[in-house]
Amino acid sequence: MSDETPAGDSAGDVAARVVSSAAQDIGSFIKSQREAAQVSLRQLSQLAGVSNPYLSQIERGLRKPSAEVLGQIAKGLRVSAEVLYMRAGFLEDRPASPVRDALLSDASITERQKQVLLEIYESFRRENNPRLDPQPEQEKQE
To answer: Per-residue pLDDT tens for 79-133?
Structure first.
């Protein structure tokens, strides 16, 4: 037996620890965002439309929220749902971009406005560098 895996550790045990770790990560991130926004747990639960105990369990890493609940929490915190989705593992992390980061962190525009601006930005990038587009226009028309 190796020292790395305790006796009786199954793949299920390992998977449970990974999920627990992800729940802890998203929970602590939500809590830090809530505290930075100076919003109480009760206020956020009302804004997000989830119960106070459920939100508390998410923040403590006891529960991993669904994508829908994360979206509601993002709205309540006025942060990008995409950031929460990536943090929770629902979306894969994209290459760093100062423009993308600035748009996603801007609390003065809505989620819809952020998405539209990101789509425009990405279309300009693809237009200027066709290698960024997985299927160039010629292949799409064929």
So the answer is: 878 778 877 777 766 666 788 878 877 778 877 788 788 888 888 888 888 776 5
Q: Is 11:4 a contact under the CB 8 Å cutoff?
A: no
Angle of helix 67-77 relative to helix 81-88, nearest 10 degrees, comes to 140
Residues 104 and 98 sit within 8 Å (Cβ to Cβ):
no
Task: Please give the Cα distance from 8 to 19 (Å, whole number).
Answer: 19
Q: Give the sign of the dihedral formed by CA 116, CA 122, CA 125, CA 127.
A: negative
CB atoms inside a 10 Å sphere around CB 10: 9
- Rounded to two decimals, the pTM is 0.54
By the 8 A CB rule, do 101 and 129 touch? no
